[in-house]
Write a structure and sequence with these properties.
29% of the residues lie in helices and 13% in strands. It is built from 12 helices and 9 strands. The chain binds iron/sulfur cluster (SF4).
Length: 346
């Protein structure tokens, strides 16, 4: 097995815009494997899984994968596998019961004080473990005029102090729209904070361009960006520089990860992830047990293993670099802690 990283394009070459990077993302598993010098017969890749939910992997992300390594942790996050077609008890299309928390189109309201907007149904990358891989986006994709109902919902509930941009990936929307919707939300007096859950600046760092920085910094709302980074190899120089530029603009940066079998289920990997996040100005915030979404059972890790990882991480890192281990439960009023056995907490 070789472990060469695919070289980045020369700095003298034309630098594609983030929209061009999106448009040229890899959508064919065979093409990705060829680019990585991987013999397709080595993998249990699946046409059926690809048909149900196609691969999408932009080149800036693919360039961080190791050539010739069928176990590359970034590759495993995007490659459709035969295991996705298995029906596994306990895994469902709506593991978090979001369809019951969808009061008006475009809004998911599960937790007190916070409401989530489905800003964009699109993603730059298709993560095979995504808990929204079966979400009914077609019922929650709004035209600008339809947003008024969602905005009225926010305005009429004074308990909501934080709006969360989600999706899909909210940064897949264009900056004109994001500027407009952010202005509408900032005009609602009881809303104080804007939280943006995104994987786009990780996948395509050039997404954070001047147009994006403009609406992020022009608002009166306190902005928190939550990155979704699962493995230290996802953080290259461009990602680090992008994160630091946001931090310098006063944007709070947090990270949440998902525990994924054969991706990040090792203490050393998680410790290295926390260290690299901190160097990039991003605080490790949450690490989630996998949401039991149909098609993702092959990523699941036992509770015993999770407890062991948590215990070992606490012994290895200062407390502020250890993310909170949590899980979500349909109908619960908050994320729930994955508690340690008492003897493990000393
Ligand atoms: S919503 Fe997030 S986790 Fe799901 S596919 Fe899109 S980027 Fe990946």
């Amino acid at each position: 097995m070789t472990a060469d990283i695919i070289p980045h394009t020369s700095t003298n070459a034309h630098q594609p815009s983030w929209q061009e990077e999106l448009a040229t993302a890899i959508r064919d598993p065979a093409e990705l494997l060829k680019l990585l010098n991987i013999d397709p017969t080595q993998l249990d890749s699946s046409d059926a899984a690809q048909r149900v939910w196609s691969i999408r992997a932009p080149l800036p992300y693919v360039q961080r994968m190791r050539k010739g390594d069928i176990n590359d942790p970034l590759l495993r996050q995007v490659l459709p596998l035969g295991a996705e077609a298995l029906s596994v008890p306990g895994f469902s299309n709506d593991p978090l019961g979001e369809e019951d928390a969808n009061p008006v189109s475009g809004v998911v309201h599960k937790y007190f004080g916070r409401a989530l907007l489905i800003i964009s149904p699109a993603c730059a990358i298709h993560c095979r473990y995504c808990f929204r891989r079966h979400f009914p986006y077609e019922d929650n994709t709004l035209g600008r005029s339809e947003w008024q109902t969602a905005l009225d919902y926010l305005a009429n509930d004074e308990s909501i102090s934080e709006v969360i941009y989600s999706g899909g990936d909210p940064l897949a929307a264009n900056d004109n729209f994001l500027l407009w919707i952010t202005e509408q939300i900032a005009a609602i007096p009881h809303i104080k904070r804007l939280r943006i859950h995104t994987r786009l600046p990780l996948v395509i760092p050039s997404r954070i361009d001047n147009n994006c920085l403009h609406w992020l910094t022009a608002t009166r709302l306190k902005v928190v960006m939550v990155w979704h980074i699962n493995h230290p190899n996802e953080i290259d120089h461009a990602v680090e520089q992008t994160a630091l530029s946001l931090k310098r603009k006063g944007i709070e940066l947090l990270n949440q990860s998902v525990l994924l079998k054969q991706v990040n289920d090792s203490t050393q990997t998680l410790a290295r992830l926390s260290e690299k996040l901190f160097e990039a100005g991003i605080m490790p915030y949450y690490i989630h047990r996998l949401d039991k979404v149909a098609g993702a059972a092959h990523f699941d890790i036992s509770d015993e293993k999770i407890q062991q990882l948590q215990q070992e991480l606490l012994a290895l890192l200062p407390g502020y670099l250890v993310p909170r281990f949590v899980y979500e439960h349909a109908g619960a009023r908050a994320k729930l802690p994955l508690s340690l056995k008492k003897a493990d907490t000393v």
